[in-house]
Amino acid sequence: MTKDKCFYVGRIVKTHGIKGEVTLRIDNEDFDEIEELNYFLLDINDKLIPFFVENITFHSNKSFILFQDLKTLEAASQLVGVAAYLPLDLLPERDGNDFYSHEVVDFLVVDEEKGELGKVQEIIEYPTQSLIQIIKDGKEILIPIHDDIIKEVRREEKKIFIKAPNGLIDMYLKN
């Protein structure tokens, strides 16, 4: 499996205990949508290798994982710093104006007043707010992801229709 068919979950930040468990820091809010979790794909030497879960517990933005066939502290310590992924098809489909960050990259953003602004470059996740990043005429525009701003998502057309707050877009496009 390749990374373009997966989503980033987080990174193994340390070992946990002495029986081979690891601590996975979860950096992706979409991870909460997963109902059944049997394995992770770990990025080892730029290859996604499946590691099957024997036991997993969750605490805040971390999970403590014991992988099958990995029962020593030494073996677990070799995974510290490794990124964890899951296949996109494990995520339940969203509809309406609710979307996953990875889903809308390259969607065209259309403002009620300003018209076409450009394509979504990425979704920037901050602790208190997520933003749509667009580059227009070499300038960055950041649009908050909020129900009052996102008016419609048309997946089949790859378009997001917004009503930006007065002055927001002009603020970015001024010389």
The CATH homologous superfamily name of the largest domain equals: RimM
CATH level-3 fold name of the largest domain? Elongation Factor Tu (Ef-tu), domain 3
Q: What would you call the structural class? A: mainly beta
Order of helices and strands: EEEEEHEEEEEEEH
Strand order of the largest sheet: 1-2-5-4-3-6
- Overall pLDDT confidence: 91
How many angstroms does the end-to-end distance come to?
Answer: 45 Å
> What fraction of the residues are assigned to beta strands by DSSP?
over 45%
Produce the secondary structure layout.
Blueprint: E1 6-16, E2 21-26, E3 39-44, E4 47-59, E5 62-67, H1 73-77, E6 83-87, E7 108-111, E8 115-125, E9 130-136, E10 139-144, E11 150-154, E12 159-162, H2 168-173
Parallel strand pairs: 7-12
Antiparallel strand pairs: 1-2, 1-6, 2-5, 3-4, 3-6, 4-5, 7-8, 8-9, 9-10, 11-12
Structure in words:
The protein is mainly beta. It folds into two domains: 3-90, Elongation Factor Tu (Ef-tu), domain 3 (Beta Barrel); 102-173, Roll (SH3 type barrels), CATH 2.30.30. 6% of the residues lie in helices and 48% in strands. The chain has a six-stranded antiparallel β-barrel. The chain has a six-stranded mixed sheet with strand order 10-9-8-7-12-11. A hairpin with a 4-residue loop joins strand 1 and strand 2. The protein is elongated. The relative contact order is 0.15. The model has no long low-confidence stretch (mean pLDDT 91).
